[in-house]
Specification:
Elements: E1 3-21, E2 25-39, E3 44-49, H1 60-75, H2 83-90, H3 97-115, H4 119-122, E4 133-136, H5 141-153, E5 158-162, H6 167-181, E6 186-190, H7 197-208, E7 212-216, H8 224-233, E8 238-239
Parallel strand pairs: 4-5, 5-6, 6-7, 7-8
Antiparallel strand pairs: 1-2, 2-3
Helix pairs in contact: 1-3, 5-6, 6-7, 7-8
Length: 246
Amino acid sequence: MKITDLEVIPFNIPYFKPLKWGVAGYLEAAEHVLVRIHTDQGLVGIAEATPRPTIYGESQKSIHFAISQWFKPMLMGQDPFDLEAIWRQLETIYWNPTAKGALDLALHDIQAQAAGVPAYKFLGGYSNRVPLTWMLGMNQFEAMVDEAVERIGQGFKGLKVKVGNNPAQDLRLFKTLREKLGDEVLLYVDANQAYSTQDAIHTLKAMQDYGLAMAEEPLPVWDWRGRLKLAQSLEVPVMGDESVFT
């Protein structure tokens, strides 16, 4: 099997409403890049690259350029099963992690199709169902509670709650959500680096009493001492996002 073509398609999907997080995070649409790798046997691997300029330094335009101008010529004529050889070539160009990641996913999609199984099974997984979590963006208190109740009622199994601007209000919101939704709903928070160490320790320890599952990126990326202190103070995991660059 050989790779015969590679499509790189930027696309925008508007959100139902703008997504707000952290101190200044704001998005009105998913501005991503679709990747399609074609083969001479008619199989097409599909994946998606997600630009995050503040984390990886990539944009829609840079991903499109990197794949179409640098990586596409490297892949033409290659066997999609020769991942080691392909990655050896990709890594001659520094960084561009989400562009390379999308190519890797599309290649695994081709391999799974060739094997006649879903990608999750090709990679060794066995469950064909995944519980979905709804991301609850920052809004007025009552609006966030109403949205949470609505989405859980639609079948979502958990909520990722954006916090960080007002620790006292964050705790009140978390407590209210637990009371409204019951103990079975997965609840965790994402502060997008907005808390100070002391605020994070005080607020997240209090949230633990209401079934906090984990805390995503509560402190600034550079504050590794604070993150260590926080992790040692909590009984729940501290989850990385902006601090995970690859």
